[in-house]
Design goal:
Distance between the termini: 32 Å
Helix content: 40-55%
Strand content: 5-15%
CATH class: Alpha Beta
Number of domains: 1
Largest sheet: 6 strands, parallel
Number of strands: 8
Number of helices: 12
Strand order of the largest sheet: 4-3-8-7-5-6
């Protein structure tokens, strides 16, 4: 895939093109039997990786890092870099379900609770009637080797992993070489919960205004403490900008 459209943000090469450009590039790679691992990058993962060298190593091992988080896009702008648009895991997943239906590329879903992943499968089959979903497994199965065998035996070429971060990235990193049939690995976070209706996504107007994070805070006030990383990220961004300016 042509990855010339990237932005250097905190030392990570973030895909800087559009969702359509990304989808077309991956489609071309699959036609050439090439494999791609896609992880979504956001402020939380930047801060997690800053504290954990292994997480940083795993994130940097991805073939493509997508900008899932307005904070990342704004940081890029502060560093003189340009990213065309925010690309979320769920948006990429739905785009690829559409392509998979057209090209008849078999899909496997792994992650979330049983009712969420099975519900997501049902909803996707309603939306994409000819979608070739060849298997799914909940994310609470402790036998990783069994899950890997199930995915491999399914014949899937696309694997969506919704274990949350950093568990989904760690799973893909650890087992991608065992999953020789898979041509596209995508970490999709809580996408199965949203697609199945177990969780609600922000209204479209809030998504357009890049306020999805605010919706989550209001909808799930118990998670407010988890958003402490946002302040850390803002401070870190200004420190990096100050260093870049002084180095220049």
């Amino acid at each position: 895939m042509n990855l010339e459209k990237t932005a250097d943000v905190f030392g990570y090469k973030i895909f800087a093109g559009s969702l359509d450009e990304l989808a077309d590039g991956i489609r071309e790679d699959i036609s050439k039997d090439q494999q791609n691992v896609i992880f979504a990058m956001n402020p939380n993962k930047v801060m997690l990786a800053k504290k954990d060298a292994q997480i940083k190593r795993i994130l940097k091992s991805a073939d493509i890092l997508i900008p899932d988080g307005i904070g990342l896009i704004r940081a890029a702008r502060m560093f003189g870099e340009h990213i065309s648009e925010r690309i979320t895991g769920i948006d990429l997943m739905e785009k690829w379900c559409q392509i998979a239906e057209t090209d008849q590329l078999p899909i496997f879903l792994y992650g979330a609770a049983k009712e969420s992943v099975s519900g997501a499968v049902g909803e996707l089959k309603k939306k994409f009637e000819m979608i070739p979903i060849v298997g799914y497994n909940n994310g609470y199965d402790q036998n990783a080797a069994k899950v890997v065998d199930k995915i491999q035996l399914s014949g899937a070429k696309i694997l969506f992993v919704g274990l949350g971060s950093p568990a989904q990235e760690e799973f893909i990193y650890q087992y991608k070489n065992d999953l020789t049939n898979i041509r596209l690995f995508v970490g999709v976070g809580g996408s199965f919960d949203v697609i199945s209706g177990q969780a609600k996504r922000a209204p479209k107007w809030m998504i357009r205004l890049n306020l999805e994070w605010l919706y989550r805070m209001v909808a799930q006030p118990g998670r407010v403490k988890r958003y402490g990383f946002l302040l850390q990220f803002m401070i870190y961004t200004w420190i990096v900008k100050w260093r870049k300016r002084n180095e220049g």
